Amino acid sequence: MSMVFRSKNEIVYDHLHAAILRGEYKPNERIVIDDIAGKMGVSAIPIREALRQLEADGFVTIAPYIGATVTPISAESIFEVFALLETMEAVCARAACKQMSDEEIASLDELVSQMDACLDQPEEWVKLNKAFHLKISDYAHTALIRQMIGKVLDHWDRLRFHYMKDVLVVRLEKAQVEHRKIMQAFREREIDTLEALLRVHNQNALAAYNRYMQENGHLHGGEGYW
Asked: Which CATH number describes the domain made up of 77-215?
């Protein structure tokens, strides 16, 4: 059995990345290298490299004389998140639909069934939902877009955790209806229908979260950017 060896840089990156997404490090909080080194038993070098990667991914800001701080969260960034997802997923879905095997479609269908079975477990549903959307880009063989979608979904997780965990419960059943329509389009190889359904899926999610944030005072003035 082959073993996967991970570098110290990767281990530190994964640790800090997960902690930021879970809110263990708050927006604008300083990340102190010496503290992490003591907790993880590593030198400052892999920590600095991990922080530079986190900065490139938009989760950390590094400034002279200040060091690394967790990037602030703006509720308005939800519009950017869904605009990026809608555009990239449309490209991936079209490519995937043209070349996916029946087995790959069945694998996607199984994820949707698993999501159906955990509507009362929102956090588990979120993990499966993320896997579903990433798997579409895997089957599209669009490696660069897949990497970018992963990063955007990470930002979405952080935004969702910080602002609007409650709205997900309301959204789940409607999202599953949309997922089943998406799967039908995949099975029937209806590429244009599939793209339209994915765009509506993203727009409906954006509308639901937009309403929630306005009702809870996180957004001000109008209906957002669109």
From this structure: 1.20.120.530
